[in-house]
Amino acid sequence: MLRHLLVGGLAGLAVYGGWEANGEWDPEMRLWKSFGVGAAALIWFVALVGPAARLWPALTRLVSWRREAGVWFTLVVLVHFVLVWDGWARWSVRELLGFQYVPELDAYLRFEPGFGLANLMGLVALLFALVLASTSFDRAVSFLGISSWKWLHSFSYVIFYTMALHTLYFAFMHYTPSPYRVLMGLPTAYPENILRFAYVVMVLSVMGAQAAAFVKTVRQRRAVGR
Known about the structure:
Strand content: under 5%
Shape: elongated
Number of strands: 2
Mean pLDDT: 91
Number of helices: 11
Structural class: mainly alpha
Low-confidence stretches: none
Helix content: over 70%
Largest sheet: 2 strands, antiparallel
Order of helices and strands: HHHHHEEHHHHHH
Number of domains: 1
């Protein structure tokens, strides 16, 4: 319980940091973006600490904290999803996937296709996260067996990379001018995302740590074989 309280406090600090970083946005968007920042920080830790500990054994003591971080990631990203679906898509699956209702045609038309695809990736990440969080307990490990449990939780990297694509789309692409925004008279200028390059660093750090840990493992096994 103490570990969950500590990680929950750190998650709250990450969300607050996201709130401060997005101070130029309107309050509603600022809120759901702040939870997105908190979720990104948590899943980055979950994805990075394993290969990092392989490279620097002193970090091994942090590996066991992935379980609590994963559970809190799921809670934070779930809040982010609900805020977006309620405030942006208004509980419409079609609007969440990039379709908008046009009264003149009495039909839903596809706008901003990248928006729908990015949200779909975020939804996939959330579904995986719910499965992993529901098995992040000792009873689940005992029931599944350690090897099966480890295989299941290796999907945390699927979550990380789908979340990365989701995040990078909104950080670099969605809020830029488009013909649709111009034709519909929608804003074409938005506050700059000051964290966008931090997201790039987060993705590259995980990719680099995984690659380096893989190379180290191969070299060690070849040395033992010789």
